[in-house]
Amino acid sequence: MTEALGLPPLGDEAAYRQAVAEAVAAAADYYGDGSTPLDDDAYDRLVRRVAAYEEEHPDAVAPDSPTGKVAGGAVSGDVPHTVPMLSLDNVFSPEQLLTWAASLERRLGRPVEAWSVEPKLDGLAVAARYREGRLVQLITRGDGTAGEDVSHAIGAIVGLPDRLPSPATVEMRGEVMMTAAQFEAANLIRVEHEGTPFSNARSGAAGTLRARERPYKVELSFFGYGALGLDDALAPRLAESAHSEVMAYVAGLGVQTTTATGAGIKACADLADVRSRVEEIAGLRTELGLGIDGIVIKTDAAADQVDAGFSSRAPRWAIAYKLPAVEKITRLVEVQWNVGRTGVIAPRAVLEPVQIDGTTVTYATLHNAADIGRRGLLLGDQVTVYKAGDVIPRVEAPVVHLRTGAETPIEIPSACPRCGGEIDTSQQRWRCVQGRLCHALASISYAVARDALDIETLGRLRIEAVLRAGLIADFADLFTLDYDAVLGLDRMGETSTANLLAAIEAAKDKPLNKVFCALGVQGTGRRMSRRIARHFATMDAIRTADIEALQEVEGIGPERAALIVNELSALSPVIDKLAAAGVSMVEPDAELGEPAEDEGLPLTGMTVVVTGSMTGPLAALSRNEMNDLIERAGGKTSSSVSSKTSLLVAGEKAGSKKDKAAKLEIKIASPDEFAALVEAFL
Ligand code: IVH
Q1: Which CATH superfamily, name and number, covers 327-424?
Q2: CA–centroid distance, residue 176 to ligand 1 (Å)
Q3: Distance (Å, whole) CA 191 – CA 208
């Protein structure tokens, strides 16, 4: 069985006993103070190996085995629960979900009336007891039968008011957790006070919930997923209501529910609906700003829940669809300091390679120098690393209790690691005082790349040569290059010089969006440059735009607007040189307005994803050119398929994206069909 799971089986009883001991110790930490000697994935795998051994050796099952027990049997408390606080059974794939649903319907002897689908929050289960509208007791789940009294935390949990607007006697059940923002804030305070940050949001929530006397305050959040009436009036009323009605009642009392997570509870009529909702929540995972480790699917109607009943461990009317772990623990081996094309100096973590969400992660961002201090990181630390979907992996925090004493401070550079010059540390993101000139090769390469000025004949080696010869300092100088000076460079003959200068000359006529993109303004890329150019139509209008005016462009908020204004002022000499050299500063398509306003274009209002290799009329187009085409035709582009996708262009060898689109019943077009649709824009 373990081999079928892709896990090595436990060899003998001694190995089994050791695995049980390890799992029990890990569960005690996890459900105790929330610390994590094993990450979730490693713990799950260990317990699955234990379970597999037990299935084959039922006589050898250890009494303290974590299998089949709430919280791995690790914890208990002394406040009895009104009704046991159970666990949830898990499924890991759509197929397992369908099998579970089918067996539930067989048990019921009828189809499930309706489903309720909501995020599975990665926090700690608590019961919050209200007597006549007043919050009187807060209890952890414990072993499911009795929990620990943590009422001292009353008043410190967002979403769990001390008083309800009506005198209800009711028990709210839900998850106490730290949102991402609360986790960041908590670690700032922790490092200031004790120097020991929480290793992740979950352990921060666990530690904070139990802490009695701290000289500082740390905020937690509550999200309810159930409620029980505690008096004769409310008990039958809630027991006879559908889950969605109970949750609406809870929210009506001012208690935060899973609905407030941004991936709220949704009623689904059938399993196809459930599946697309599961996909949708999974797709939202990185945007929620709080940890979810799965999706909970419940029968909504009270009668279905009553008839399905419970096993000793979990309700039969609900299941957790587990999502892959997005956080792992690995070692921070090195910190590298890289200078980007705009002169920004950014630290990057080199990690012991670790598998997260299907990819091997070796590097992770550390944001900026201040961030390293804020997180209290040391070289050699075991660190929690987060990576989900398309997001750049990031180091969250050190796992302080795994320190060996061999860790060393991280060296923070005092001079630019590229040119040795001064560093401007006035902003969070440090920058070489030379700015773009520090890494001119990178900024010029960016300016002449296909998305910008598209000067194909100007490769990296040639840029290096003109830079080395001192002929240019930035990309604007390209337009005033002298024929004889270029001819004098190594390996430049008359023809290649003439061709290069002709290609540069031709680039003067590029539309404003390409010229703007070439500037490499922080906070803008190809797509944003197009929006800005279409909105303002001329470079002069962009340069005179203030923070407010810039925010009229879709996707620009106050912070990005301020950054752009700053950048444009620093880039003034470059823009002046471009204008003086006769580079075009107008956007011919400006009258079309921003893409969002392109009414009547073939892809207006559509989000299009491209996958596989393009053929026929689209064969020569790169992915960027395809994206360009989609935007010209009024559409938006995305790299991943979700329920928001309107159309998938699937070329040859299209893989999982095509399967996913088919499952979500999203329209799929071949390259030929798509080419016909956008013919006028090709
Ligand atoms: S319903 C009878 N809904 O996950 C148990 N549980 O791994 C019904 N959890 O013990 C639980 N989010 O602490 C439910 N939306 C949600 C949840 C959720 C997180 C927790 C809960 C449960 C554990 C099982």
Answers
A1: Nucleic acid-binding proteins (2.40.50.140)
A2: 11
A3: 15
Look at 298 and 25; give whichever has higher pLDDT: 298
The verdict on pTM exceeding 0.85 is no
Which protein residue has the closest C-alpha to ligand 1 atom 3?
225
Tell the CATH topology of 79-322. Answer: D-amino Acid Aminotransferase; Chain A, domain 1 (3.30.470)
Q: CA–CA separation, 426 vs 585, rounded Å?
A: 32
- pLDDT over 50 at 596, yes or no: no
Listed by start position, the domains of the chain span 13-73, 79-322, 327-424, 438-580, 607-681
Spatial distance between the Cα atoms of 20 and 378, rounded to a whole number of angstroms: 32
The two beta strands, 636-638 and 607-611, are parallel
Angle at 172 between CA 168 and CA 178, to 5 degrees: 135
Which of the following is catalytic: 69, 120, 508, 667?
120
3 state DSSP class of 437 = helix
| Residue 657: active-site member | no
Nearest CA to ligand 1 atom 18: 120
Strand partners, 517: none
Sheet containing strand 647-650, edge to edge, reads 636-638, 607-611, 647-650, 667-669
Instruction: Say which residue, 390 or 137, is predicted with more confidence.
Output: 137
Which residue type does 642 have? S
pLDDT tens track for 527-566: 899 999 999 999 999 999 999 999 999 889 888 999 999 9
Strand partners, 321: 91, 295
* Residue 451 DSSP one-character state: T
Q: What is the mean pLDDT of residues 493-505?
A: 96
d(CA 440, CA 548): 31
C-alpha–C-alpha distance, residues 56 and 50, integer Å: 10
Q: 366-397 in b/e burial notation, b at 16+ Cβ within 10 A?
A: bbbbebbebbbbbbbbbbbbbbbeeeebebbb
In the block, tokens 């390259």 appear at 671
- Residue 413 CB–ligand 1 contact under 6 Å: no
